[in-house]
Specification:
439 residues; alpha/beta; Alkaline Phosphatase, subunit A; signal; TAT_signal
Length: 439
């Protein structure tokens, strides 16, 4: 039976991310390079890089309350040795593996926001990540917080579908973070891909052509398919000399985006498996792409990258140290790459996870799902220092740290200070939360 346009759109899924995830039209790199040539991002325009640590990063083993006597009592064998950590301020220190970030702290380019979380915490990976990516703790939102920024930007520009180059996820799938009600970002896998060409390409272009008779759902599918060709071929020249490292470690996004709690945590565990973290691993590959795209002037305002494997229920010590080394190597190399170009002063990076871990380790030498944790903000525009209140290690909520900083305060500060958008456009009434002084 011939494939009708209607049947094709119904079978295609709702967003371009679904097509990319299924391999039904991989994204290549030439279009971004072309966009950087034709309409480069204006100098000084703020750029936000979002680093998601999937699995629930142990905040107490990342930003260590080294001067609190209760820390060593609670943590036992998992406690870091005082002589190995990198002192910050207010009795806090960075984990031994974060020597590069310690250098950024000394340069005044690292901010640590303590006790970050959301009201009425949930220990579920899936639910917690949905809350962080949607910025909607009390309601089930169908859009991500950056997706709503894309919607607002499209409305200001008088565009119904927005610009798919404004927000890019470097990896095989598009996280909910970048999905709006009307506009979406694009997923750019870290490999050499090309959009379909020849007869297949022409057929797809015809099937994805807008039609006034389309229902809203079909119109959105058609638009996302057309976006594939807008983005397709975009980063080829940008990535031409990118090192091929840490292949096969991208499963954390697919698990977190499509599976339940076990799938999210299990898939996330695969992302830290390559190498010992010394070269930045897969996260380093993703940030290499981001650095090259920024240096080339690609007109992207938000980049999303990720590292998984942080669900450390057992034998945490070695696993977590390796993951932190990978994070540290990737972020510090990214900082050096930006510093070599003209746009370092415009780039701010946020590092977060869906929750922290319990204060007291479990019997398997690991830690179980917790609540509050630190958020790291780094870059040349950042005012370095410690922000927010470090949660007490003794006044716990059923064994968990109490949230002292609402995560939407971080988002509101970034929306206004980096993306130049009034926070209430994205966060609604939650935009009344206090701003933080890290910018």
């Amino acid at each position: 039976m011939p494939l009708s346009r209607r049947r094709f759109l119904l079978a295609s899924g709702v967003t371009g991310a679904a097509a990319v995830a299924a391999g039904a039209g991989a994204v290549s790199w030439d279009v971004l390079h072309d966009a950087a040539t034709r309409r480069p991002l204006a100098d000084g325009t703020g750029i936000l890089v979002i680093v998601t640590l999937y699995g629930g990063n142990d905040g107490l083993d990342t930003v260590v309350p080294i001067e609190d006597p209760a820390y060593r009592t609670a943590r036992g064998d998992l406690a870091a040795a005082a002589q190995d950590v990198h002192p910050l301020a207010d009795g806090l220190a960075l984990a031994p593996a974060l020597s590069g970030l310690a250098g950024l702290w000394n340069a005044g380019r690292l901010a640590v926001v303590s006790g970050v979380g959301y009201p009425e915490p949930d220990h579920s990976h899936f639910r917690s990540m949905a809350i962080w990516q949607s910025a909607s703790p009390r309601t089930a939102s169908t859009s991500g917080w950056i997706g709503r920024w894309l919607d607002a930007t499209a409305t200001r520009a008088g565009s119904s579908g927005g610009d798919p180059l404004l927000a890019l996820a470097i990896g095989p799938t598009l996280p909910p973070l970048l999905v709006g009600e009307h506009a979406v970002g694009a997923a750019v896998p870290t490999g050499q891909f090309a959009a379909p060409d020849g007869r297949e390409g022409e057929l797809l272009r015809t099937l994805y052509r807008p039609d006034p008779a389309d229902s809203p759902l079909r119109a959105r599918v058609a638009r996302s398919g057309a976006d594939m060709f807008t983005v397709a071929g975009a980063l080829g020249p940008v990535l031409a000399d990118a090192p091929e490292r840490a292949a096969g470690t991208s499963g954390q996004l697919e698990g977190a985006a499509t599976g339940g709690d076990d799938a999210a945590a299990g898939a996330a565990g695969g992302a830290g498996a390559a190498g010992d973290g010394g070269d930045g691993g897969e996260l380093g590959v993703q940030l290499d792409v981001v650095a090259r795209a920024i240096g080339a002037g690609v007109p992207t305002r938000v980049y999303s990258v990720s590292l998984g494997g942080f669900d450390t229920h057992a034998a945490e010590s070695g696993t977590h140290a390796r993951l932190l080394r990978e994070l540290d190597a990737a972020l510090t190399r990214f900082d050096r790459a930006l510093a070599a170009g003209p746009r370092a002063g415009a780039v701010t990076t946020m590092v977060y996870s869906e929750f922290g871990r319990r204060v007291v380790p479990n019997a398997s030498g690991g830690t179980d799902h917790g609540t509050a944790g630190p958020v790291l903000i780094l870059g040349h525009p950042v005012r370095g220092g410690c922000f927010g209140e470090q949660p007490s290690l003794t006044a716990l909520d059923d064994g968990d740290l109490r949230v002292t900083t609402d995560f939407r305060s971080v988002y509101a500060t970034l929306l206004e200070g980096v993306l130049g958008t009034e926070a209430d456009v994205v966060l609604g009434s939650d935009a009344r939360l206090p701003r933080l002084a890290f910018l």
